[in-house]
Structure formats: C-alpha cells, structure tokens
Amino acid sequence: MACSESDWSSCNMLISCYTAIGDTERALDAARRTLAVAEKLVLSEPANGDIMAGAVGALAKLGAAERAKEWAERGALLDPDNMNMRYNVACTLITDLGDHDAALEMLGPYVAGVGAEALDWIKSDPDLDSVRGDPRFQDMIGQADARLGVSNG
Question: What is the pLDDT of residue 98?
Fold first, then answer.
C-alpha cells in the first residue's frame, strides 16, 4: 500500500477497510502511515481538525490512547467549528478508547446544529450504540428532534 505524502485520508480509510476484513497487520501499517503523514501535514496546517481527527484514529488503532486524546483536545481547541472532525473524533473516543464523557462533549456542538438527514444518521450509526442509553446523549437527540420538529411517535 502506498500513500502520497499529502494523502492522509486514503491511508486513514485503509485502517477501517483492513480492520473490517480482519487484516490486523495491514490495519496497523495503515495507521502508522496515516500518523506519519498527519504529523508532517500539521506542521504546515496546525489548525486542520480533519488531519487531527485522522491522527486520533491512527493513534487509537496503534494503542496510544493518551496521545490520541491529546490530539483530540488539540483539534477541539484549534478547530472548534469543524463538525466533521468533532463527529469522527467522537466516534473514535467511543469505539476505540471507551471515553464516553469526552466523546459526548465533542459530539454536543455537532448534534446541536445538524439537519434532519445527519440526525437520522446519528440515530442509526453503530459507532454510537454504546452511548445511546446515556441521558446526556438522549437529551442531545431530544433537543435536536425538538429543534427540527421531529416527532418521536
């Protein structure tokens, strides 16, 4: 697998692909490559939350939980309005790091501004299954439903 020096996204997607087919070695290799590219790119784009989200996922896959959380915090500080980053980091915090508190904090602003289509996705995304019973998550969804005039019947 080859990734260009600026294409962190393709390497990042390969982590999920290899994980899905059970190829742990290639998933770890893709994570190492994603991280290497992300680390280079943030030197020239230090506030690019999308790159930081990719690094968070790679670090989580590599077992570097504390460093992944540091990158997540950095992303939230430097690119707080990047909702794509918030959602992807929240999913990683839930599925790979088990940090539901940080994930819900990251997810809050995203859910507060989503449209109906994204809200439907949130309601069915399996990455969020382990927080569905959390009252904070339920409150977020309830507030979004009310804002959008969605009936729960």
Answer: 96
